[in-house]
Design brief:
The complex is a heterodimer. Chain A is mainly beta. Chain B is mainly beta. Chain B contains no helices and 11 strands. Classes of the chains: A mainly beta, B mainly beta. At the A-B interface, strand 4, strand 5 and strand 9 of A face strand 5 and strand 10 of B.
Chain lengths: 107, 120
């Protein structure tokens, strides 16, 4: 089973700041990595798939990069609605696994 | 508009059974693979099961293998999860999620979730 480790666990930032979240895989997942956003009481929402492709309707301030074992999600300028928990997930093999999440909170 | 609506959650005793349903609309259900993903209270996401569009291919996470059964009825646009021998650690919100395209493992639409609580 591929283990995805996200860092940091929590980030405290202000609107307008730039943020980079990290996801590291225990073995290569090629580019088969996705990012999801989850707000309290809501289902997860797909943001990025295959490391760098924005899902439909996702603002351009969200971008993803990486391949192999190291991946990042960058939000270029935080909006108030971006404060949430972010999960990475691979689709390289079975079982699909998720990272433990990074919580983005307002400073 | 794509919609996934889960139902069937509730309180069940350890060792008991429950059947979850996911009603799909707004897309050709029979053309898409589907999954169940769960989230324990205050915890992260855990993929637990997958079923191909025809139902011929199924996968489970080790944590539920032998206890849970995924199925679908394409004529009724519905996905199911039969959960037996439930344990306290199965307490979670259960989401159904659609695969973006064949074999993708990219979950582009999710239901709102249904809460399963396993407790005596």
């Amino acid at each position: 089973e591929i283990v995805l480790t996200q860092s940091p666990a929590t980030l405290s930032l202000s609107p307008g700041e730039r943020v980079t979240l990290s996801c590291r895989a225990s073995q290569s997942v090629s580019s088969y990595l996705a990012w999801y956003q989850q707000k309290p009481g809501q289902a997860p929402r797909l943001l990025i798939y295959d490391a760098s492709n924005r899902a439909t309707g996702i603002p351009a301030r969200f971008s993803g990069s990486g391949s192999g074992t190291d991946f990042t999600l960058t939000i270029s300028s935080l909006e108030p609605e971006d404060f949430a928990v972010y999960y990475c997930q691979h689709r390289s093999n079975w079982p699909r696994t998720f990272g433990q999440g990074t919580k983005l909170e307002i400073k | 508009e794509v919609q996934l609506v889960e139902s069937g959650g509730g309180l069940v005793q350890p060792g008991g059974s429950l059947r979850l349903s996911c009603a799909a609309s707004g897309f050709t259900f029979s053309s898409y693979e589907m999954n169940w993903v769960r989230q324990a209270p205050g915890k992260g996401l855990e993929w637990i099961s997958y079923i191909s569009s025809s139902g011929s291919t199924i996968y489970y996470a080790d944590s539920v293998k032998g206890r849970f059964t995924i199925s679908r009825d394409n004529a009724k646009n519905s996905l199911y999860l039969q959960m037996n021998s439930l344990r306290a650690e199965d307490t979670a919100v259960y989401y159904c999620a659609r695969d973006r395209y064949y074999g993708s493992g990219i979950y582009d639409y999710w239901g709102q979730g249904t809460l399963v609580t396993v407790s005596s």
